[in-house]
Amino acid sequence: MSSNQSDDRLPAGFLDALRERCRGRLETALDVRTEHGHDVSHHIARPPQAVLFAESTADVSEAVAVCAAHRVPIIPFGTGTAVEGGVVATRGGLCIDLSRMDGILEVNAADMDASVQAGVTRMQLNRHLEQVAPGLHFPVDPGADASLGGMAATCASGSAAVRYGTMRHNVLGLTVVLADGRTIRTGGRARKSSSGYDLTRLFVGSEGTLGIITEVTLKLARLPTAISAAVCDFPSVEAAVDCVIDVLSAGVPMARIELLDEVQMAASNRFSHLDYAESPTLFIEFQGSPTGVVEDARQVEGFAKRHGGGDFRWAVDAADRERLWRARHDAYYASLALRPNGKGFVTDVCVPVSRLTECILRTKSYLRHTRIPAPLYGHVGDGNYHVVFVIDPDSPHELREVQRISRQITADALAVGGTCTGEHGIGLGKLDELEREHGAAVDVMRAIKAALDPLGLMNPGKVLRAGSDATV
């Protein structure tokens, strides 16, 4: 235990009880607590009073039981790469860091599944699969090397969702520690079941507000025998998105379809030292057989030409594909580089693909009236797009401005049957939007929360507003 402690707000005996019952390392040093009080978002950091580095499900269970007995809030922590403030300790309390729970428990190559502890990252799992199950991989790719427990908790997805789906489609089962310290197992390795309530899907996307995910059983996918990538610029966002809609309607199988607008392309050129046309651009990836990926690329090239697309560059070689896609891979950091010391405020709506053009055009009309750097990019193959506002973190005026624009973008998405978040979750940032989207159904969510977490200890302040949220 560090001598730099800040446990004056913790109940008497709480830390002693944790030391007695948990084998994981307990820290109260300010630097450790501060590191665990924020993610990569614009939300103001608020550290917990203590951090427990758990090493097993038993550690988590014991810690949660101690927290329940002392009515101390609990915040789970994976890699801290989320963007909606989901790890901010709004009521103080204990942060349970799961990064040391990094064991790969089982790989079943014949059944194409794997079970891992929550702290295993997606890249770690894929490196392991290269050694023990060549030809298999875990395909969900949110960009960051996030922990798989955190990805399940936020229902992460990313650019490959158009082919492989989100975490909700790829999680078979979970081990979860409930708010009173009990441990349950949901789901299993079977590919379908009609047995009881679907608790797995309940906890996927619950952001640590119903329980703490400590183990995950995942579907695996076969690596394609061939991959080709293509890049094509367009005269307008409308032309690019209309091309995507036509390609999807034609049933061309694609693994990724990404749009970067002209602002993002200019930022990427400067940041990544590229020479792309600074106009709306599609980045596309095809997966399949060696002949199939070539045929698919040529078919999409025809659609692109009909929509005014420019030079259609495509490649099969891995190094060439990496060069083609560099602008997309570096997009977020290129956005932040538009403003030194700026902070990213990221929107995250998802709409039916047929309504994507009108929604993006509305969004672009709002962006024309702000001086804040605001590149737009998105996973347009499934209707999900983002604006990255690069704000001055010390300017309340700028924060209010981007919040206003974000609400307009969300309202447009909801009006066409979309959602306020395609992949980032609710966290602290979208509490109002959740209520606008779901209406009376939010009362049902609150009832579930109250049944599983009657003391309001589990990641309080996130997803749902609740008067019973615990305070220390």
What does this entry look like structurally?
The protein is α+β, with helices and mostly antiparallel strands. It folds into four domains: 14-97, Uridine Diphospho-n-acetylenolpyruvylglucosamine Reductase, domain 2 (2-Layer Sandwich); 104-222, Uridine Diphospho-n-acetylenolpyruvylglucosamine Reductase, domain 3 (2-Layer Sandwich); 226-331, Alpha-Beta Plaits (2-Layer Sandwich), CATH 3.30.70; 339-427, Alpha-Beta Plaits (2-Layer Sandwich). The chain has 17 helices and 19 strands. It has helices at 14-21, 30-35, 57-70, 122-132, 148-154, 161-164, 167-170, 199-203, 237-249, 262-272, 290-306, 318-329, 331-336, 356-367, 396-415, 431-438, 441-452, and strands spanning 25-27, 50-53, 74-77, 94-97, 104-108, 113-117, 136-137, 171-177, 183-187, 212-219, 221-222, 226-233, 256-260, 281-288, 312-315, 343-346, 349-350, 376-379, 384-391. Strands 12, 13, 14, 15, 16, 17, 18 and 19 form an eight-stranded antiparallel sheet that branches. Helix 9 (237-249) packs across helix 11. Residues 1-7 and 468-472 have low confidence and may be disordered.
Unreliable sequence segments: 1-7, 468-472
Rg, nearest Å: 23 Å
What's the total count of β strands?
19
**Overall 3D geometry?**
globular
Helical content (DSSP H or I, runs of 4+): 25-40%
Number of domains: 4
CATH class of the largest domain: Alpha Beta
Query: Main beta sheet, described?
Result: 8 strands, antiparallel
The secondary-structure class comes to: alpha+beta
Q: What's the average pLDDT?
A: 94
State the distance separating the first and last CA atoms.
20 Å
What is the CATH architecture assignment of the largest domain?
Answer: 2-Layer Sandwich
* Tally of individual helices: 17
Under CATH, the topology of the largest domain can be stated as Uridine Diphospho-n-acetylenolpyruvylglucosamine Reductase, domain 3
Question: What portion of residues belong to β-strands?
Answer: 15-25%
